[in-house]
Amino acid sequence: MMPMTRADILKALLPGLNKLFGAEYAKVHHTEYHMKSRYGKYSIYKWDFNGATRINSTTLAKGLSKEEASGMMKLLGEPE
Questions:
Q1: In angstroms, rounded to a whole number, what is the distance separating the alpha carbons of residues 44 and 36?
Q2: Residue 77, CA distances (Å) to 2, 12, 32, 34, 57 in order
Q3: Gyration radius of the chain over CA positions
Q4: CB 64 within 8 A of CB 42
Q5: Cα atoms in the Cβ-side hemisphere of radius 13 Å centred on 42
Q6: Assigned domain for 1 exists
Q7: Which stretches in the chain have pLDDT values below 70?
Q8: Closest CA to 46 of 61, 35, 57, 62
Q9: Structural domain range at position 68
Q10: Side-chain-facing half-sphere of 66: CA atoms under 13 Å
Q11: Has residue 44 been placed in a domain?
Q12: What pLDDT is stored for residue 80 in this prediction?
């Protein structure tokens, strides 16, 4: 039996490390989508977070009906 090389060790550990730290990274850096109403019209916002701090807010759409806004929120939802 040959000794394990660094490449063999890395190949064995990398999937587990990506799974572990990829999930931790997603907890810290994430994006949320919000629907807000004002005077009967709806707007969709994208919020980017770094930890608990919102670092960026982008208006994706405004002046939508409730049905249009609900449909857009479904499209922006995370795939399951």
A1: 7
A2: 49, 34, 9, 11, 17
A3: 21
A4: yes
A5: 14
A6: no
A7: 1, 23-27, 78-80
A8: 57
A9: 6-76
A10: 4
A11: yes
A12: 42
User: What pLDDT sits at residue 27?
Assistant: 66
Quickly list DSSP for the chain. -PPPPHHHHHHHHHHHHHHHHHHHHHHHEEEEEEEEEETTEEEEEEEEEETTEEEEEEEEEEEE-HHHHHHHHHHHSPP-
**Token representation of residue 71:** 């449909």
Per-residue tokens: 80: 């399951």
pLDDT tens per residue across span 12-26: 887 887 787 776 666
Residue with token string 């919020």: 47
Domain contains 33: yes
Number of domains in the chain: 1
How far is residue 47's CA from residue 56's CA, in Å, rounded to a whole number?
6
